[in-house]
Amino acid sequence: MRILVVNDDGIDSAGIHCLASLASRLGEVWVAAPDSQCSAMSHRITLHSSIDVREEKDFYAEDARAYRICGTPADCVKVALEYLMPQKPDLVFSGINHGYNVGVDILYSGTIGAAMEALANGIPAMAFSSADNRDSRVPEHFLIPLVKELVESPIGRHEIWNVNFPSGDVSEVKGILRRRRICRKSAYCTVYNPGKEREGWRELSVLSIPEVKAEEGSDLAAVLGGYISVGKVSSGVLM
To answer: What whole-number distance in Å separates Cα of residue 235 and Cα of residue 229?
Structure first.
């Protein structure tokens, strides 16, 4: 299996190092990731400027061919498919994101955006997120068996798999909840606090407060309850 690994937290993120290492157990791994933090960029692409690309010779996963790209997560997929890789991958992994991608947050997510770009090119994709991607204990235990299961599971040509891991010790995970629907609200409540005013401009500080409740059966309820959440995200454009 040939796997392209991308993310939105940047190529130096602990999450993509973990994901690339795990992916190497499944086959040939290519990595294309942003040079810097690109969270909440959704499916944004670069149109009116150039994109710089550099191969990373000392990437964390030794067997992977890795590239640092000065662009968005979706750019990384496009550049990999159209310029870097001699053959298209069989599968695209996006993540492991720092912070859950559940509920309406998936609309903003660069992690989901990269996976959707793969889907737009006819390549199956999976997005992975965690409460804290610096803690790899749960993904290291569960991700490979889950991938093997999901590869064999039915999914529409307009859908990606979206997997969210709680952080902490493996023994604290209560189980895996599948077929989770997308929560109708965000995992984080955004608060804007007014600050200084200068020449008619008002400075607003942005604060994200974690949500503590969600409707039963949703992806957010699963992770808040200590479960791994597995669900599908659809692209209306590709239906």
So the answer is: 19
